[in-house]
Amino acid sequence: MPKVKNLIKAYRERGLGDFMRFVLFKHQQFTKTRIHAAKSWYNKQIFLAQVVKAGPGLSIGPYETTIYRFGTGKIVVGKDVTIYTPVKITSSDHIFPDAIVEIGDRTRIGSYSKIIAAKKVLIGKDCLISSFVRIHDYNGHSLSPRKLDEPDVLRNRNHTPSDEVGEIIIGNNVWIGENAFIQRGVTIGDGSIVAENSVVIKDVPENVVVFGNPARVILWLDKEKNDK
Q: Cβ contacts of residue 195 below 8 Å, gap of 6+?
């Protein structure tokens, strides 16, 4: 709550109605801050229960978070990582037993983002992952349509085959813009930027900006290469 001195000052400067609204607003701020702190603490405990290793300084927001580590899948988080909620992060061993999601030191994950690994998703240090970003190393179901007279192997009843899973490697100091989609088998080089709404389906070199669907290089951040 605001200090008594501030309350007295506010009462003198405002009418009774405005003063009461001022007090209610300050009370709401005070309560909201405490509730968010409690929810963040709770989310952090749930998160820590699912990860194999987490460095110090982990910060997690107050909103609902889906963190799942299925079977022998692993989730590893470095130090001083910030995760804005809600997010979804899963690592599942249903295709590869050593599936892993690894997030490097000081990286930030934006709200409503999804990181899904059936084999490997590695995110480097000092990365910025914006809101609504999707990073999936597999499609979830087979690409093959199969045959209608073989219902047991139709894509809605069958897992992704191992040859349709591809590791995703995101280098250090990478910035991925809002609503970007990083697809399986992609490596993004250090220092690069993926513009918002881009769909990345092939490797991205170091120190470039990519944009589009599919994403392509539109700018070299290395001045010498950009001038060529």
A: 177, 180, 209, 210, 211, 212, 215, 218
**Model confidence pTM above 0.85:** no
> Active-site residue among 36, 94, 141, 159?
141
Distance of alpha carbon 77 from alpha carbon 107, whole angstroms: 9
Q: Which domains does the chain have, with CATH numbers?
A: 1-50 (no CATH), 54-227 (2.160.10.10)
3-state secondary structure of 41: helix
- With H, G, I as helix, E, B as strand and everything else as coil, classify residue 183: coil
Which of 49, 170, 48 lies closest to 107 in space, CA to CA? 170
Rg (CA), the chain: 23
Which string of b and e fits 202-219 if b means at least 16 CB within 10 Å?
eebbbbbbbbeeebeeee
pLDDT in tens, 6-53: 656 655 566 666 666 666 666 667 677 777 788 888 888 888 888 999
CA distance 216 to 106: 27
Note if 141 is an active site residue.
Answer: yes
- Report the candidate in 176, 81, 172 with the shortest Cα–Cα distance to residue 122: 172
Say if residues 118 and 95 touch (Cβ distance below 8 Å).
yes
Encode pLDDT of 112-124 as tens digits: 999 999 999 999 9
